[in-house]
């Protein structure tokens, strides 16, 4: 299907049922794109929220595809002019088999998607990377502002068994090399910790982090975390797509320590439990989203993000038993 004027507005979103991808599908549908969403188990109730989105009945088709299965990915991408590759495992706990559970789907899954894009003559690809591929590097001096020229240190990620960061770094590096080698037009967006309201009925790793703060625990590392709202992430993805951008873009809003974030939440919602102790860690890093902002990208306030997140968790019944 094409929009008026003959421009192909059919795009594919991989892993459409996830936290970020669900908001992306919602935004694309609102902009009259025709969306092919890949999911692994199309009959499952966990994708019902997608079918209820405005314009979904006319413009959204769900395709059964595993990114490790090239043919299934190609079937979903064929006929699309754009692809947003979002699917990737984001573990919320320690994984027992990192190669199978994280690295292979992130790296081989991305290669499959890009090869399918090339074969299907897709015009542009937006790849969702992460600051996990940018700033996990012990050798960056503290007075340096980390921008898109920085890469995470893969050996350090391996040594510290930070498999998700290793996988995102390897996947993005290979994706950008693939694009350079083949001429496939690709832009890579690197968000920080993504928070904000959930559309899906299952919880994802980054939302679980905020839920953990609200539920409280004995102790938590007082890490410095860069945050960005899910709605601002998807607006960055579509902005980069519609502007025909290439290269990398860091997508972050504000930084808080874990304690600072809990205190901010407590000032709005005093009746949740919150962590009791914090373990101090020295991980100060300064990052910049200036490049993305220069495209006109803007982000919400942290207050809006936190309130909308908590209200959505309440609505989903995720916090009931923890309130005083
Ligand atoms: N959330 C964050 O804080 C954050 C920060 C930076 C970057 N990111 C990136 O943003 C993207 C989305 O993250 P998210 O937070 O939205 O995570 P999420 O809710 O857990 O979604 C991940 C999606 O990946 C899909 N997936 C995993 N393995 C797959 C496979 N083998 N084949 C097909 N689909 C597969 C899952 O599909 P099923 O529904 O079939 O399970 C799910 O829809 C990821 O690329 C992540 O690295 C996230």
Task: Tell me the layout of helices and strands.
Layout: E1 10-13, H1 19-30, E2 34-39, H2 48-51, H3 56-59, E3 60-64, H4 70-77, E4 82-85, H5 98-119, E5 124-128, E6 145-146, H6 154-159, H7 163-182, E7 186-191, E8 193-195, H8 205-215, E9 219-221, E10 224-229, H9 230-242, E11 247-251, E12 254-257, H10 258-268, E13 277-279, E14 286-287, H11 290-293, H12 302-315
Parallel strand pairs: 1-2, 1-4, 2-3, 4-5, 5-7, 6-14, 7-11, 8-10, 9-13
Antiparallel strand pairs: 10-12
Textual characterization of the structure:
- With about 325 residues, the chain is α/β, with parallel strands linked by helices.
- It has a single domain (about 10-320), classed as Rossmann fold (3-Layer(aba) Sandwich), CATH 3.40.50.720.
- The protein contains twelve helices and 14 strands.
- The chain has helices spanning about 20-30, 50, 55-60, 70-75, 100-120, 155-160, 165-180, 205-215, 230-240, 260-270, 290-295, 300-315, and strands spanning about 10-15, 35-40, 60-65, 80-85, 125-130, 145, 185-190, 195, 220, 225-230, 245-250, 255, 275-280, 285.
- The protein has a seven-stranded parallel β-sheet, with helices on both faces. Strands 8-10-12 form a three-stranded mixed β-sheet. The chain has a two-stranded parallel ribbon with strand order 6-14.
- Helix 1 (about 20-30) packs across helix 9 (about 230-240), helix 4 (about 70-75) packs across helix 5 (about 100-120) and helix 5 packs parallel to helix 7 (about 165-180).
- The radius of gyration is 19 Å and the shape is globular.
- It starts with 9 loop residues before the first strand and ends in a 9-residue tail after the last helix.
- Residues about 1-5 have low confidence and may be disordered.
- The site of NADP nicotinamide-adenine-dinucleotide phosphate has 26 residues, from helix 1, helix 5 and strand 8.
- NADP nicotinamide-adenine-dinucleotide phosphate (NAP) binds next to helix 1, helix 5 and strand 8.
- It comes from Pisum sativum.
- InterPro entries: Epimerase_deHydtase, NAD(P)-bd_dom_sf, NAD(P)_dehydrat-like.
């Amino acid at each position: 299907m094409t929009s008026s004027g003959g421009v192909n507005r059919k795009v594919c979103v991989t892993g459409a049922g996830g936290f970020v991808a669900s908001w992306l599908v919602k935004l694309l549908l609102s902009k009259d794109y025709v969306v092919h969403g890949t999911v692994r188990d199309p009959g499952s109730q966990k994708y019902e929220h997608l079918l209820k989105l405005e314009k979904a009945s006319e413009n959204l088709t769900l395709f059964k595809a595993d990114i490790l299965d090239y043919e299934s990915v190609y079937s979903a991408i064929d006929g699309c002019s754009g692809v947003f590759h979002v699917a990737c495992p984001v573990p919320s706990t320690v994984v027992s088999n990192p190669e199978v559970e994280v690295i292979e789907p992130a790296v081989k899954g991305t290669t499959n998607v890009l090869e399918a894009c090339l074969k299907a003559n897709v015009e542009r690809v937006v790849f969702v990377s992460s600051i996990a591929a940018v700033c996990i590097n012990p050798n960056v001096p503290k007075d340096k502002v980390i921008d898109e020229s920085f890469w995470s240190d893969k050996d350090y990620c391996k040594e510290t068994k930070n498999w998700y960061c290793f996988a995102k770094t390897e996947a993005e590096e290979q994706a950008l090399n693939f694009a350079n080698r083949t001429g496939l037009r690709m832009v890579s967006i690197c968000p920080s910790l993504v928070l904000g309201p959930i559309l899906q009925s299952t919880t994802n790793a980054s939302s679980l982090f905020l839920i953990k703060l609200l539920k409280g625990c004995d102790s938590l590392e007082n890490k410095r975390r860069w945050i960005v709202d899910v709605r601002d992430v998807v607006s960055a993805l579509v902005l980069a797509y519609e502007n025909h951008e290439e290269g990398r873009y860091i997508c972050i809003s504000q930084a808080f320590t874990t304690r600072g974030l809990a205190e901010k939440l407590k000032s709005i919602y005093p009746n949740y439990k919150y962590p009791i102790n914090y373990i101090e860690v020295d991980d100060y890093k300064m990052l910049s989203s200036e490049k993305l902002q220069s495209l006109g990208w803007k982000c919400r306030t942290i207050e809006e993000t936190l309130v909308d997140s908590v209200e959505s968790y309440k609505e989903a019944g995720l916090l009931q038993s923890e309130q005083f």
